[in-house]
Amino acid sequence: MRAARGFTLIELMIVVAIIGILAAIAIPQYQTYVAKSQVSRVMYEASSLKSVAETCVLEGRTGAFFSNIVAGGAQGATDCNLQATASSLLFGAAVGPDASPAPPGTGYPIATMVGGLVNVTATFGNGAAGVLATGPGILRWQRDTSGAWTCAVNAGVDARYRAKGCDTQF
């Protein structure tokens, strides 16, 4: 009599079923983790513009806020150049006074000042998780007239993806 070698078909099917069940649980959890980490990353990328915007406001340079002044762009004496860095997670329209677009696959946070309120707005797109880009998800830092900054997201960013410190909705 010959000894049996290898696995039976039922044993292999059990292993495949266990792997399938684990994958069905792990993949959605991983996608949630990725989206949440991208919201945190964009929150910190956009927050880097706060100190420059604050300086511009304190110095009275509130004529126009530019995310980035590109080569050859004109800037007035009262304008504020935030010198933003393009992000692979953001979708940005044309930036700078000469309307030069962001490099392919990147975007800039956009800063504006209306009625004494400074808004730094970041719109998810390009390399962002699909659940953030299709919303579209928008993250906004806002400075009120007293100088306090608050962070909020729009309805395009589901509550489970919101970063701590930026969990309110506008």
Structural features, described:
The chain is an alpha/beta fold and 170 residues long. It has a single domain (9-169), classed as Glycoprotein, Type 4 Pilin (2-Layer Sandwich). It has helices at residues 9-58, 130-133; strands at residues 65-66, 80-81, 110-114, 117-123, 138-143, 149-153, 168-169.
Strand order of the largest sheet: 3-4-5-6-7
- Spans where pLDDT lies below 50 across 5 or more residues: none
CATH-level-2 architecture? 2-Layer Sandwich
Proportion of residues in helical segments: 25-40%
- The number of strands is 7
Per the CATH scheme, the topology name is Glycoprotein, Type 4 Pilin
Global shape: elongated
Tell me what portion of residues adopts beta-strand conformation. Answer: 15-25%
Please give the count of helices.
Answer: 2
Quickly describe the structure:
This protein is of the alpha/beta class. It has helices at residues 9-58, 130-133; strands spanning 65-66, 80-81, 110-114, 117-123, 138-143, 149-153, 168-169. The strands form two sheets. A five-stranded mixed sheet has the order 3-4-5-6-7, with helices on one face. Strands 1-2 form a two-stranded parallel ribbon.
